[in-house]
Amino acid sequence: MIKIHHVLAIAVALPLLASAQTPAKPAAPAAAAPAAAPAQKVVLAQSSMGFVSRQMGVPVEGKFTRFDVQSSFDPKSPQTSKVVLTIDLLSADLGNAETETELKKPGWFDSAKRPQASFASSSIKALGANKFEIEGQLSIKGNTQRVVVPVTLTQKDAITTADGAFQIKRVDYKIGEGDWNDVSIVANEVQVKFKLALTGVAKL
In total, how many domains does the chain have? Predict the structure, then answer.
């Protein structure tokens, strides 16, 4: 007579033996990682960053020769894009050594202590016809103000060029302190104009 505990033992063992004899299914191949988007880089030889102020009503033009752009801009999805611009204030070039030395002083750029200005976008809006509006924070000498920058994009071969201009008030950034705070001598309004050539931007 087969005892009950023998029957139970066989009932338990049979499924285990069956699973041991069933070949394991091969693991599904891992999904391929999406290809990384090409890095966007500024082409300095085809870019410019300039400014125009007015002293006693006379235009004074200058430019910065060293700057950089960190960009992850997608023309099809501007709302998820980001742009960060840094400018080396020590690279200010006005074509006059005496004026350039004056600009480095604490009353102006104070560039020995604060050598960089920066702009970081907070939102980018498409306006149509390859025009965009970039809103962000501009920081100079530790003073930060909201600015809105209109930009027009063009593309040729692998280069995307962003052209734009906007106005700031120098007193907001404490540029020109002391006697130079008088806006009747040096105008408060300063126009910033730029052309940034970038590689790695998707087709418009």
Answer: 1
pLDDT grade for 39, boundaries at 50, 70 and 90: confident
CATH number, domain with residue 63:
2.40.128.110
Please give the residue range of the domain that contains residue 144: 35-199
Residue 150 belongs to what H/E stretch? strand 143-156
Question: How far is Cα 201 from Cα 159, in angstroms, rounded to an integer?
Answer: 8
**pLDDT at residue 111 tops 50:** yes
Residue 193, domain member (yes or no)? yes
Q: Would you list the DSSP string of 64-109?
A: ES-EEEEEE--TT-GGG-EEEEEEEGGGEE-S-HHHHHHHTSTTTT
24 belongs to a structural domain: no
**54: Cα separation from own chain's centroid:** 29
Given the structure tokens 């999805």, which residue do they identify? 77
- Please check whether residue 130 lies inside any domain of the structure: yes
Residue 25 in any domain: the answer is: no
For the chain, state the CA radius of gyration.
31
Residue 160's pLDDT band (cuts 50, 70, 90):
very high
